[in-house]
Amino acid sequence: MRQTLTISLQTGCIMNSRLPKILTASAIMLLLLMIGGFALRAMLESTMQPQCQNQILSTLVAPQGKHSAILFARDCGATTGGLARHIALLPAGAQLPAQEGGFFVAVLHRDAPAPAEPVRLAWRPNGDLQITVAPGMEMYHGATSVRGVAIHYQFPPSPSAAAQP
Fold it and tell me: What is the pLDDT of residues 66-94, one digit of tens each?
């Protein structure tokens, strides 16, 4: 095997003629490893994020027909637990988006028994939306106006609190 050695006039160092090829191949390998690492990371992050599903429980169209109030449960697998209810207010006929998008979130308190009807929707004659939140449900997010519609909340007392003198 014959090797060619050259002496650099600038540095006075002896160089192997294969060195530039080796450096180029090493740089390409490093670049490919970095690209592969980024692709693997992106793939792992996308599979680790919960794939949430919305289950529509009820849809109530406003008396004027402009809006729909959609009561839904959002299931993100093992990352969430318990009874949670969400509400979105959309133009009538619009589909509920797969991502989060509700203006209201209520979750059952961990020590409370599950109510038969955790959240109830009703349109008032003037076009305002009435939301009744059952005892034991904790409201985490709620707006007072959405898309020009006023939102009103009602929190009836629990039956045990109402029975106390």
Answer: 999 999 988 776 655 568 899 999 999 88
Q: Is the pTM of this model over 0.70?
A: no
Of 79, 74, 140, 83, give the one whose Cα is nearest residue 111.
Answer: 83
CB atoms within 10 A of CB 73: 15
Q: What residue type is assigned to position 56 of the chain?
A: I
Angstrom CA distances, 7 to 10, 24, 91, 120, stand at: 9, 20, 78, 86
Q: Under a CB-based contact definition with an 8 Å cutoff, are residues 95 and 113 in contact?
A: no
Q: How many beta carbons lie within 10 A of that of residue 6, not counting itself?
A: 11
> Taking a C-beta distance cutoff of 8 angstroms, is the pair 55, 73 a contact?
yes
- Identity of the amino acid at 53: Q
Beta bridge partner(s), residue 36 = none
